[in-house]
Design brief:
- It is a single chain.
- The protein is of the alpha+beta class.
- It has nine helices and ten strands.
- The protein has helices at about 20-40, 50-65, 75-85, 90-95, 100-110, 160-170, 260-270, 305-310, 325-330; strands spanning about 115-120, 135-140, 145-150, 190, 205-210, 215-220, 230-235, 250, 275-285, 285-295.
- α1 (about 20-40) crosses α2.
Amino acid sequence: MSILIQEMPVKFPNALRKVKSNWVRNQLVRRIRDKWKRDKLHLPLTPEHYELYEIIHLAYWRKLKDFPNLIDCRDFNDKIQWLKLFDQRSEIIQCADKVSVRDFVRERVGEDYLVKMYQVHRQFSDIDFESLPKSFVIKANHDSGSVILVRDKDDFDYGAAKETIDSALAQDYGCNGGEWAYRYIRPRVLVEEFIEPESTSPPADYKFYCIDGSVRFVHYIYDRGENTKEQTVGRDGHDLATELYPSFVLGTDFVRPPVWDKMIDVAESLGQGFKCVRVDLFCATGQLYVGEMTFWPMSGHYLGEGQKKIGKYLDFDRSTFKPFLLPDLNKM
């Protein structure tokens, strides 16, 4: 599997620049160093881990005003931070890239589960709009949320789209939260097929959380818009009655789709070999598609009580650790 690594070694920026108060900054540095000393007694931390360790703790504090418990993980959020530090592998970079993940999907489950790709470029201005159909989707390959839905190419704001994508391509996505893999993806813009452009809302998302290649639960998101709804359901489809996004409405409308068993098969095939990965799938026009693969949902910064309840399903083995990968990647 080929992995695109940036030409120059990558270093994370000084995360403390985000902290404005000198007093707070000094207190955080002291507290993180004290915690580092304690954690080293129980975890395979090396000096090379420290920069990422500091970034993870600062981001956690900024979002949740707390530090993660890495020794005895309490919930969903803590376990995601553990994964960032102790489950690093090069395939995560490939699968986090919306372009190169296609090779992974193709190899594991086949071409049929991929949305048609029209173009891939290093910059927005290289897109050949003349050769594109009436409707299409433009995305950045290395972040979350930089998506432009074009229903009619003769009636869309080219300037606004260019500004959005250019800004996304220039961004060091994920660096402030310790999502290290995104720093090793070469930013590109991709153009793909618009599935069901006549629909006023996107198809429902089925986010399958896989542990060691086995689906533990599914985060179902539907009616996206002003009244977006969510449900968490078990592998068999029973309602777990637990929210993950407090801003969404907790729904009750989930019904197992006819392709549910096929969804399970696809998600588990893609999840094989990973301690923990979220595989996003959706159905449209009678076809099942792979959306993306995510290793650190919400960067492990979920608000609310739901993530504490749902965290028990992330029951991966925390007694085994992978070597710290970043120094090797920086040499490539």
